[in-house]
Design brief:
single chain; Rossmann fold; 2 domains; alpha/beta; 284 residues
């Protein structure tokens, strides 16, 4: 009798293991399916609240709409410091690409640290009042349209168009710099690839297979041959320093690097000293 009971118990256990394994597999499959179809809102997180615009800097800015694709217009601004951009004059300028939760209109209030550097900045698709859906291929395609538009402006020295990328936007800036003759490149808190960042956030998911927007900056870094300046926050809990350092190992030309004291991932581009460093790098 005891033998029969032990045999039945072992039989029950043998049937339980496949059921547990099946349930676990179904759970992982459901989780991965959720990640795949919801990834856009996790990668791109447009700010819901617009920044109030302070009127005492309004004279420096021109608001515009740029048609980048059928049915898609982006809102953007040109910052032209006082005394620049006059008839017949051409100036160096920089195009700024923001982070994952960034409405770039904050620059309307806080660009004074960039001093005499003309700036061009647009909200990504789906951000602010820009139309469309954000995806890597869309953002990179739009960046090329923006660069071309800037190069055609009468106030722009087309041989001195630089690019600034922040966080997520460093992936856009890297791809533009790797395929376009930009003058100089500035990267605020860059990462080697979105895959490596995502692996730390969701270690149990096959992120390299699930991600549609991979932003593999490490793979295009070898094609970036212009002078590059990397700015790191002293305390960054979003993009680990080791991710930035891994990226820098792939550059064809070793970048200049600065860690700005007293800053974190969010505050770094707002820091007036960091802006001053960028302005000096791009205008000398």
């Amino acid at each position: 009798m005891k033998y029969v009971q032990e045999k039945q118990a072992r039989l029950g256990e043998s049937r339980l293991v496949p059921r547990v394994a099946l349930s676990a597999s179904m759970g992982f499959a459901a989780y991965w399916t959720y990640l795949y179809f919801s990834q856009t809102k996790h990668i791109f997180s447009p700010a819901l609240k617009h920044h109030d615009v302070l009127t005492h800097h309004a004279h420096e800015f021109t608001e515009l709409r740029l048609h980048v694709a059928p049915g898609v217009e982006l809102e953007g601004w040109v910052r032209m410091p006082a005394g620049m951009g006059g008839a017949g004059s051409k100036a160096p300028c920089a195009v700024y690409f923001g982070g994952r939760s960034e409405d770039v209109r904050w620059l309307l209030n806080e660009a004074q640290g960039f001093k005499n550097l003309p700036l061009v900045f647009f909200n990504y698709r789906g951000y602010g009042n820009s139309q469309g859906t954000p995806m890597e291929k869309n953002l990179v395609a739009d960046a090329r349209v923006i660069y071309k538009w800037v190069a055609e402006q009468p106030w722009c020295d087309r041989n001195q168009i630089s690019v600034i990328g922040r966080s997520l936007g460093t992936g856009v800036a890297m791809q533009l710099a790797a395929s376009t003759p930009v003058h100089k490149l500035v990267l605020f808190t860059p990462y080697d690839s979105l895959i490596s960042i995502a692996k730390k956030k969701v270690p149990l998911a096959p992120v390299s297979l699930l991600l549609r927007s991979k932003f593999k900056s490490n793979e295009c870094a070898a094609n970036v041959r212009n002078p590059t300046f990397v700015l790191l926050a002293e305390n960054d809990e979003v993009v680990p320093h080791d991710s930035s350092l891994r990226l820098m190992q792939h550059f064809a030309v070793k970048p200049l690097v600065a860690t700005v004291k007293g800053t974190d991932h969010v505050s770094l581009p707002h820091d007036i000293d960091a802006q001053g460093l960028v302005s000096h790098f791009l205008t000398t």
